[in-house]
Amino acid sequence: MLRSMFSGVSGLRTHQSRMDVIGNNIANVNTAGYKSGAATFQESIYQTLKGSSAGGTVYGGSNPNQVGYGSKFGSVSLNFNASAFEPTGVLTHAMIDGQGFFMVGPKNPNGFTTGSDVDGGIPNPPNPNQIPELNLTRVGKFTVDGDGYLCTPDGNVVYGYLPTDAAGQPPNYPMEPPVNDAPFFAAQDKLQPIRIPGVADDGTVHVPPEPTDTQLKLKDLSVGADGMVTGTSDDGKIYKFGQVAVCNVPNPNALENRGGGYYKVVNNTGEVSAHIPGSGTTGQLAPGGLEMSNVDLATEFSNMITTQRGFQACSKIISASDEMLQDLISMKR
Questions:
Q1: Is residue 314 within a helix (H) or strand (E), and if so which, with residue range?
Q2: H or E stretch including 306?
């Protein structure tokens, strides 16, 4: 069989795979937080017809003669650059204006350790870094469920830092001085689910809520640019009951895409770390909206045209090779 036949088949496969990537990009042009992918090709294997030789005293050296067997699919790299801001008017929605990912996952009252102490250093002995157990996402579409948890629409709880007093203990609200003037001490060695405080029978407000507490009624619930989650009670007190954390990933292209806007930390991502928004090379939050898809339709349509023409050219290779084989077979007649 002709080598060109196999080259044409390999070209069809690779261009079809690239079209799959382009189609996925276009299908998610209006998906919040979607990061567009770009497919790359590589040369396939080569057959050496003649090896290279060194030059002698009489004749010079010769170069190798090699014939390739087409192309193969190389990789799909994602573009993690921040996209445009789409206002939604919901104060609990937020976009990361820069690098970083929100961390969400199942309810875990004990939280997850980050491997860093409160000053951002590594304690001795080091704490285990449990951030890889959480899901990462760029979609800050957060709401409060019936139990008071700040969570995503599919039920994943948002993780961050809970307020503590000077002794590192959860405060009992209201505090003196007033809550809106009180300092916020965030222990950055542990990520915990963010939850609205609960009110005990004696009127004491607990963070996190006790099992017997009733949910505190809040209005004007919002997420700030620094990730601070605040709300105003009926009596006008402003409560700070958590700060959304942002995860920094040195090599985001190594993340494993789990679908639904979620990524998982696997190998080759580098040392992931949690930060207050705006620190540790992460971006601040843009409240009241979501990040739009960063798909560029002009680029995708241009890539679609070149991919389609490449597919057609590869099919012509197969047709021409078939005609050559037909001519060869007809020589016997």
A1: helix 297-330
A2: helix 297-330
